[in-house]
Amino acid sequence: MERRQAGADADLAERESWKHAAKYGGIGWPWRDKPGFALVLAVRGREVRVLREASAPRVAGLYEWCKSRRAEYRVLDWFTDLTDPAMDAWRDLSDQDAAGGRWAVEPTSAPMVGHPDELAAYFLEAGNRTKGGIKTLHFGDSLLPGVLRQFPVNDMGRQAREYPPLAALGYVLTGVAMAGSPAVAGGSGGGWLAWT
In b/e form, how buried is each residue of 173-192, taking b as 16+ CB within 10 angstroms? Predict the structure, then answer.
């Protein structure tokens, strides 16, 4: 299932202003009976907007979606958990593309993966960008605000990979922040960076 974002209710000028922003992606792998989830963010100044998101029950579906979005949006990097077993299937697909003369999709390791507080760090990054002062994370028509609101607080100590939409969002937000993007640096106010 795919949802197009980019401010369906915004005027044309607003949508156009995000067209030239840097684009990054996050990938949360399928977990047991939960489909995987991928999203593309646009980063402009200190603001971040969810442009597109999709869920897929299989790695091949995520790979094809990410490959298409990379071409459509010129995604600079994809952040994910490189230690997840799903990466084996992803690498096979990427190797097939490379062998066929096509551009392979090679994600980057997200910060905090495997850390006991990774899920808390991802929530902190999203929370710092959506609460108080100046909101810097814009969801548009994304399903993510509902997912964040319905998350059982007692599960905070679990691994992010168990919640693919939250993992994808956390991977890309912290990945861009750690990469030192001037667009996102400082968005977290230091919070989770102290754990790294």
Answer: bbbbbbbebebbeebbeeeb
Euclidean distance between CA atoms 121 and 188, whole angstroms: 10
What does the pLDDT read at residue 186?
42
3-state secondary structure of 137: strand
What's the CATH number for 2-186?
3.30.420.240
Domain ranges of the chain: 2-186
Q: Is pLDDT at 189 greater than 70 in this prediction?
A: no
Q: What's the CA gap between 35 and 1, in Å, rounded?
A: 10
pTM (two decimals): 0.84
Q: Does residue 76 surpass a pLDDT of 50?
A: yes
| Strands 36-44, 47-56: pairing kind | antiparallel
Q: Who's near 151: CB < 8 A, 6+ residues apart?
A: 123, 163, 166
